[in-house]
Design brief:
153 residues, four-stranded mixed β-sheet, alpha/beta
């Protein structure tokens, strides 16, 4: 009986760990460093890893991330902030780099292009998250009072 109770405890622990891991996989992390920029800079990073192909209710994670980034970009434009958008795919690249809010058409066009075929943005290998963070850090270094950034995964 003791052996049975011990086995049940181990199986229960494994089950809880699996549930916890599943919760982390299904969540969509958002990183906000909490620094309010005096200079009006917002840097958005969209994760384009293979896991972003998964869907919930027929909407892929990459589509959700793109929509969330667009909403933040629109809010930044309303505040008169500059917007930078980085895609963390096979290689980290700027889709927008310090675009003034007066150029709303350019910002909207970048997101429109991403929305046309969001699954084509997803990389096959490991995304360059480190490179994306380095690009974001470069923007932050240019800003005296810091910048806000978000990673949409």
């Amino acid at each position: 009986m003791k052996k049975f109770a011990k086995n049940i405890s181990i199986y229960l622990l494994i089950f809880v760990l699996i549930l916890t891991a599943a919760a982390f996989v299904l969540t969509q992390p958002f990183i906000d460093d909490g620094v309010e920029s005096q200079d009006g800079e917002v840097v958005l990073i969209v994760d384009a890893s293979a896991s972003m192909q998964s869907s919930i209710n027929s909407v892929s994670r990459i589509e959700r991330a793109t929509n969330a980034a667009l909403n933040d970009a629109r809010a930044a434009m309303e505040n008169g902030d500059k917007v930078s958008l980085i895609l963390a795919s096979d290689e980290a690249t700027f889709l927008l780099q310090q675009v003034e809010s007066e150029n709303a058409e350019e910002i909207e066009a970048a997101f429109e292009k991403m929305s046309e075929d969001p699954l084509s943005l997803v990389c096959n290998g490991t995304p360059d998250i480190k490179g994306a963070m380095a690009l974001a850090a470069d923007i932050c270094k240019k800003v005296e009072n810091g910048a806000r950034y978000a990673d949409f995964a």
